[in-house]
Amino acid sequence: MKRVTGIGGIFFKCKDPGKMKDWYKTHLGFDVTEYGVMFNWKQEDETKEGYTLWSPFAENTKYFEPSAKDFMINYRVDNLEALVEELKKEGVTVLDNIESYDYGKFVHILDIEGNKIELWEP
């Protein structure tokens, strides 16, 4: 089973997400939405498109907890249910249950230094 297929998103804390988005739009040409920026690309087989999301969060967000870090990386995966079962067998801390939305399934884990990682099956 292939585990991670790519980076789904890069999320980080900042003092003012609105100003941060404006700065990146003005100076680097980011096409910013309320969620951040979607960098579109083709998947390996070139028949499907994918994207990586860049998104600033308020510095007081609780979304990255229990990690004390100012960032979180979202990794794309192919089969989230099977991967979560394997990770549990390997002793990896799984923080929550898999949640499903129109745009995919999500779960959060911790790495060995306590960094929160978001796993996403589009």
TrEMBL record:
<dbReference type="InterPro" id="IPR004360">
    <property type="entry name" value="Glyas_Fos-R_dOase_dom"/>
</dbReference>
<dbReference type="InterPro" id="IPR037523">
    <property type="entry name" value="VOC_core"/>
</dbReference>
<dbReference type="InterPro" id="IPR052164">
    <property type="entry name" value="Anthracycline_SecMetBiosynth"/>
</dbReference>
<dbReference type="InterPro" id="IPR029068">
    <property type="entry name" value="Glyas_Bleomycin-R_OHBP_Dase"/>
</dbReference>
<protein>
    <submittedName>
        <fullName>Glyoxalase</fullName>
    </submittedName>
</protein>
<dbReference type="Pfam" id="PF00903">
    <property type="entry name" value="Glyoxalase"/>
</dbReference>
<feature type="domain" description="VOC">
    <location>
        <begin position="6"/>
        <end position="122"/>
    </location>
</feature>
